[in-house]
Design a protein that fits this description.
By secondary structure, this protein is an all-alpha fold. The chain is 64% helix and 0% strand. The two termini are 36 Å apart. The structure holds fe (ii) ion.
Amino acid sequence: MTALSELVRLYDGYVDTYREADGRLPSMMELKRVHTAKVVENAEAIADGEAFSAEERELALAAALLHDTGRYEQLKRYNTFRDSESVDHAVFSHDIVKAKGWTGDDRVLKAVLYHNRRELPDDLDPIGRKVAETVRDADKLDIFRVLENQVETTDWRGDSRAFWNLKVSAPPSPEVVSAIGERRPVDYQYIRSLADFVLIQVGWMISGLCFKTSMKMCRGRGHLEFRRRFLHEITDDPSVDRLCDIAFEILTSHD
Ligand SMILES: [Fe+2]
């Protein structure tokens, strides 16, 4: 297994190839670089909280570091982070990491490949599953931060592009609400309103986080309260409090 410090060196060197002549990364790429660093931090906290073995920790941090490797090339080639308009960025990341020969560890490669799947396939051994689940939890925990940042720094009411042209003051779709309440994966074609988009993340709190440590981190960072408040600003649909109450129960059931 390639040592983590060596992987960091390789990864940073790779990111450097996308820098402008003045040394700066294009701002959209910089967001992904920061996201990656935070996902690694989250993975560290999960590994500590769940008392991972040294091997599990090393693998989980490696996978966290590499999970979005393809984002830089995706943006350069297709000028978008939308997978539906370009490539599946998890497959793309996996293929780049593999082609570069940075690691031959199957558990790391699969955690990268599967990080955006709705469900984890069952071709994983117990350690591989733990590594993949860590990346998925660590990623979601940072996506919570990213959404809050976007709400706070954009004119989301006035500028429909802030959230991909989703309708700002439309109630949640019944399909989305029922799927979340029944802990089924949400079919993304039903996401029509901003409320749907935010509720999906409430759904992650109900059935998407694997580790108790992740739930505690989510709770400690106030992500549920932020979403409840924000949803109240955009809709008075009663499903908001109902789903947020379920999420609250789940997040606090491990204290
Ligand atoms: Fe990703």
